[in-house]
């Protein structure tokens, strides 16, 4: 049983390992609304393909366990990277209980694909060295106590928000006490997929820009000075003053 990060959408952004695993698995479970058909083309011609979009968790796990009992090697595609917002944790504990072994292959997360589309590094020397990846509370699992936008925003760090585009006005309202309205902001929708869109603005303008563009799904919201940083110092990583004989190439 292999949990495989499918990447942000483009079929060629899956890892080589993930592609090769797909090519040998007799059963593949995939999220139908988020998996391009070109990605499924990596599966064997006779593979059993199971769209999980309309299945609940017990049904999904039962299909995995059934395929395992039948002796199949199984691929479970997860959009983006399995380590974040993939719901693999609850699948793993049920597979543990059922005695089904599994491993995990990482994928390109949506925030990374969106940053690439923006042509921006999200950690810029002396401007921003941290990234908070979070989401907005809507029709979804409740956020843990303390994990509020206000608490994260108090740090002034760069924010990357999943699942928040339909509440962007509320997001802006919650962030305004902590960031200037001129703070750079961006929305990236459908990164790496057909119809991808990039909006660049400020905290004061980005909500109206998103509404005018009609963006309502599969979008990341970014807020932070790194999005428009210029004139920042070079990193020490490649500094001429660094003792390269005695220090590894790392930050």
Q: How are the SSEs placed, and which strands pair?
A:
Layout: E1 2-5, H1 16-22, E2 27-30, H2 37-40, E3 48-51, H3 57-69, E4 74-78, H4 88-98, E5 103-105, H5 110-118, E6 131-135, H6 149-153, E7 158-162, H7 168-175, E8 184-189, E9 197-202, H8 206-213, E10 219-223
Parallel strand pairs: 1-4, 1-5, 2-3, 2-4, 6-7
Antiparallel strand pairs: 7-10, 8-9, 8-10
Class by helix and strand content? alpha/beta
Q: What is the spatial order of strands in the main beta sheet?
A: 3-2-4-1-5
Q: Kindly, what is the distance between the CA atoms of the first and last residues, rounded to a whole number of angstroms?
A: 35 Å
Main beta sheet, described? Answer: 5 strands, parallel
Number of helices: 8
The ordered string of helix (H) and strand (E) elements is EHEHEHEHEHEHEHEEHE
Low-confidence stretches: none
Backbone CA Rg: 21 Å
Helix amount: 25-40%
Q: How does the overall form come out from the CA principal axes?
A: globular
Could you tell me the mean pLDDT?
Answer: 92
The total strand number stands at 10
In terms of DSSP E residues, the strand content is 15-25%
């Amino acid at each position: 049983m292999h949990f495989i990060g499918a990447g942000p959408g483009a079929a060629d952004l899956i890892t080589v390992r993930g592609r090769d695993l797909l090519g040998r698995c007799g059963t593949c479970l995939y999220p139908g609304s988020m998996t391009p058909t070109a990605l499924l083309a990596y599966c064997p011609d006779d593979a059993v393909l199971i769209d999980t979009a309309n299945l609940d968790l017990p049904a999904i796990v039962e299909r995995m366990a059934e395929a395992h009992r039948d002796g199949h090697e199984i691929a479970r595609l997860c959009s983006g990277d399995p380590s974040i917002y993939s719901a693999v944790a609850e699948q793993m504990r049920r597979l543990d209980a059922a005695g089904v072994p599994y491993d995990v292959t990482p994928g390109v997360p949506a925030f990374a694909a969106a940053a690439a589309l923006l042509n921006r590094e999200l950690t810029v020397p002396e401007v921003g060295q941290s990234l908070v990846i979070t989401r907005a509370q809507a029709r979804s699992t409740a956020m843990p106590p303390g994990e509020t936008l206000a608490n994260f925003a108090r740090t002034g760090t760069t924010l990357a928000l999943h699942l928040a585009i339909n509440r962007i006005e509320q997001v802006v309202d919650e962030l305004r006490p902590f960031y200037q309205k001129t703070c750079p902001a961006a929305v990236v929708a459908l990164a790496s997929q057909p119809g991808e869109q990039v909006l660049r603005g400020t905290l004061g303008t980005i909500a109206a820009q998103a509404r005018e563009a009609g963006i309502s799904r599969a979008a990341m919201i970014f807020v932070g000075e790194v999005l428009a940083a210029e004139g920042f110092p070079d990193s020490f990583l490649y500094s001429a003053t660094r003792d390269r004989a005695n220090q590894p190439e790392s930050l």
